[in-house]
Amino acid sequence: MGRFVLKRSLFSLVSLFGLLVLVFFLSRLTGDPAALYLPVDAPQSVRDAFREARGLNAPLISQFGDFLVNLAQFDFGDSLRRQRPAFDVVMEAFPWTLGLAGLTMVLVLSGAVVLGALAAIKVGGVFDRISSVISLTAASAPDFWLALMAIFIFAVGLGWVPTSGTGTPWHWILPVAVLFVRPFGLVLQVVRSSMIGALSSAYVKTARAKGVKQRAITFVHALRNAMLPVITVAGDQAAGLLNGAVVVESVFGFPGVGKLMIDSILQRDFTVVLAAIMVTSLAIFTMNLLIDLAYALLDPRIRY
């Protein structure tokens, strides 16, 4: 198991390094920060001094070399916009994104596992048909459109919840609800399909013949064996929530990494963009590693 973890960790670090290098060069295509932060009529000497102070006057290859040296020291430099270490800026925003994605994923798994298991008990029944319609509709709904409609109906029209911000628990309702819809639909489909296969297996028929109650058969015997594909999809959706939060956070003004990343790209704050990519990617790689470990715990065959 330790060898497997080490191997996956090394592959993840190589992928992370490649992603950072790619973002480093692509972010430079957004333009010159001096043109954004200095007045239009600023003399060339002032522009040169601005770039020189921030290492932007050097050739791109030289800047990349400095980036690698600083990366080895876990130093991304200071934010152009905030004049503070870029990593500190990102770590202030990351808990907001992690909390938003974590709360949403807990609700998604809780709802999808229960509804999917109940729908699989009687295939083709009324409850099964209703859950299928809900899951297909939810999986097809775009986050951006849902966010705008939610604001228009529940915040502006009915006035039940705020349009943006994080001051009270009411501010979390719309962002969590919008993020919840798509992964809920996808996970519900997988739980239903996996549970149908598990409930038709031989060991379930044996449990029924022994007089085991349907609740115990569904949520104890069948659910454990049906969770392997669910874990895969849930892990992908959890990683997608970290990425999908970019849109939702921007629409609702939520102070997470997603909104910070969009703002930093528009502000040409390269150091913050790189730090945000690294923190988000590390979180996703860690999540994928935990999913692999959960696989091994649920199915002993995978350990070998």
Span from first to last CA?
Answer: 9 Å
Helix count? Answer: 12
Helix content: over 70%
Question: Which runs of at least 5 residues are low in confidence (pLDDT < 50)?
Answer: none
Question: What is the third-level CATH name, the topology of the largest domain?
Answer: MetI-like fold
Provide the CATH superfamily of the largest domain. Answer: MetI-like
The whole-angstrom Rg is 24 Å
Find the structural class using helix and strand composition: mainly alpha
Question: Would you write up a description of this structure?
Answer:
With 304 residues, the chain is an all-alpha fold. It is built from twelve helices and no strands. Helix 5 crosses helix 8 (170-199) and helix 5 packs parallel to helix 12 (270-298). It has two domains: 2-72, no CATH class; 93-267, Orthogonal Bundle (MetI-like fold). Helices cover 78% and strands 0% of the residues. The protein has helices at residues 2-27, 33-37, 44-53, 60-72, 86-121, 126-140, 143-157, 170-199, 202-209, 214-252, 257-266, 270-298.
List the helices and strands and how they pair.
Elements: H1 2-27, H2 33-37, H3 44-53, H4 60-72, H5 86-121, H6 126-140, H7 143-157, H8 170-199, H9 202-209, H10 214-252, H11 257-266, H12 270-298
Helix pairs in contact: 1-12, 5-6, 5-8, 5-10, 5-12, 6-8, 7-8, 7-10, 8-10, 9-10, 10-11, 10-12, 11-12
Task: List the main descriptive attributes of the protein structure presented here.
single chain, 304 residues, mainly alpha, MetI-like fold, 2 domains, 12 helices
